[in-house]
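From the shared-data thread, chain only:
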Amino acid sequence: MRSDLRRLSGLTLSLILAGGLALAQGSAPTPQDLEALNYYVSNGDSRAADAELRRLRAQFPDWDVPSDLTTLGQQRSPAAEIDRIYRQIAAGDLTEARQAMDETSRNFPGWTPPPEMERLLATAEAQAAFDAAASAGNAGAAIEIARRTPAILRCDRVNNAWRLAELQAAAGQKAAALQSYRGVIASCSGQSEVTATLEKAEAVASDAELVELFRLANAQLPGSGPALKALETRLRAGRGDTAPEASAPAAATTGGAKRTPGRTAVAEADLPAAGRPRTAGVARSGGGAGLSAVRAAAQRGDWRSCTGLTSGATSADILYERAWCVYNLDRPLEALAAFEPAASGRLGAQVARDARFGKTLALLALKMTEEAARLAAATDLTIQQRREVEAIILDQRGVRAYQLKEYRRAIAFLTAYEDLTGGLRRDLAIMRGYAYLNLGKRTDAKRIFTELNNQLATPETRAGLNASR
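Structure, as tokens:
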């Protein structure tokens, strides 16, 4: 942001600053504006408090500064109310969240819902309405909802675009369904998203249309030619044909162009401590006392102070810090939105990678396992990040398979988790023992329960031993 300001001409910058001051005339800071000053005063940081006080005086020239700054803390900010609203959104209690937002605005006249809260709630409401329309088979209503809220058709919600296409196909609108699939292929950069879309589109595409879709996919994924060629061969073989050679050479027809990711596409496992980094540990753009204070709070693990200091932030660097802080406060839905500016590349490639890693962790915290897997597959994560993400994915898939009584798949996922991490948590080991037991493999089950009971005898291990005899 600093570099952007330096590039502005002196006249333009003065107009912007003058406009900002004109808007502030006759106003006083709200409790939300005073979060940083309250923080500095309560921690006895007089130098930072003086700097923040100068900034507030410049922004609010008519403000009567209290002689005793400690009284500022009495102007309570709605931190608890804000936390409750985000929790309600994450839990899907959208009517309650909307009511709580309105009540908070009335009870705290100086507070207005931050843009990211409004966006999250509006998107969640649109998603709920879309789900209801799709479940009812109402393609027209689903299309209208998606038109009003295009965020629900972004690539990280690709399931919505697929459901919309399926509704259109079921209504006999094959051309519209094909266009929906085409929009996904043209907009999303994850190989798993594109290949799954091609497989779905095959049901409504003619031979010529299928060729065109694969050409589009090759243009979107220039490095995936062999995989796309194999998929096309398989799909066309199902039609009694073979894939034409014309659709294979992607680079020759596209010049290697690649689209920007993230555009619009038309027994639970605990998250390990390693999956909750305080910061991404890389250099980031930006500066100033505000950002320094935010980073200091994050480094201390003081997530609430960090969240308070970043309330209403709009710059990508501060939003990035806020994303990790709210993530660590178990507000993954809010973290998803806050990670987005950095994930889109505003702070450089390395921070974009770490932000996408954060988005993946947030999706996993929401138990959106397959969405997280698609995002991870489309991101060049570090080895450590990929191992961490893959471990959580295997964990969640293993638990989910067991809950669905797919015991062979559960065993496969849990064994892969053990191979990746070098061990298996006790609860997962017990689950694997019962999976063997449900498959009638009592010898394997008894071996697992015996080992666990020898390590630490508990009612669970004794029950497993008795059941496997």
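DSSP finds 25 helices and no strands in the chain.
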